[in-house]
Each structure stands twice: as structure tokens, then as C-alpha cells.
Amino acid sequence: MAKLFPGRTRKRTPRIEIIPMVDVMFLLLVFYILSSLAMHKDRGIPVNLPGAVSGEAGQPQQDLILTVTSQGKYFLNKDPVEIAELPARLEAMPGGLAAVRQRPVVLNADLSAQHRYVVRAIDELRKLDIYDFVIAIEEGEAAR
Asked: What's the pTM?
């Protein structure tokens, strides 16, 4: 049998397609970034903490942080909360008040927050029979 086009038999060289490889590398990069962001546990509202020499290094890994801002606003983890509705919000947490009492509550009070706001937060915790709380500090020199 005779070939129809005898001069056109050129062998094709194989090519490596790079576009699918770039797509896979991009997906790996996105997965790495998202998983590293998920590992960072930052639950509280950033406030200026008072310094103390006697404080321990590092903050214990807690799931419950009560923040008092300099304006007297309260936040439970990162959600704003009125101090009057704090008992209901703690009761609504997984496991209820019994689970909250099993771990210490971190009290994140701003350096310039009035003392009455911090005392009111402690008082509300004690009304709920929560006596195990930690006051967050900035490690270093004590405030004067």
C-alpha cells in the first residue's frame, strides 16, 4: 500500500506539559498556607497588658479568654459580650458551666482599663462558681 503523503513522516518529540505541574504546586502552596494559619491559635482581642516580673513565660493553651478593653467593653474569646449576658453565654458553651469550671479562664485586662471593670468581670465569674482564672500579663518589668 502506498503512502498518501510520503514526505511528511516526521517523528514528534515528547513535551512535558508544565501547566498542570504549576497548578499542583499552587494547590500545595495554598494548602500549606491555610493549614499553617489554622494552627495559629489567637483567641483573644489584642490589648495592652500590664507587665510583671513574677509572671510565668507563655500563655497556657485555653479555649476561654475573657477580655476587658480600656473602654470597659467585654469580649468572650473574640465575640463581644455584655457582662449581664456572660452567664448565659458560658452556659451555652459546649459542656455548659461544668466544662467551663474544668479549665482556667484567662482574664485579658487592658493596662488602662479601669479597675472596676476588671473587678466586675471577676465578680461575675465568681457568681458562677468559677474561681480558677489566670490574669494575662506581659512578661518583663512591672508597671509603675
From this structure: 0.60
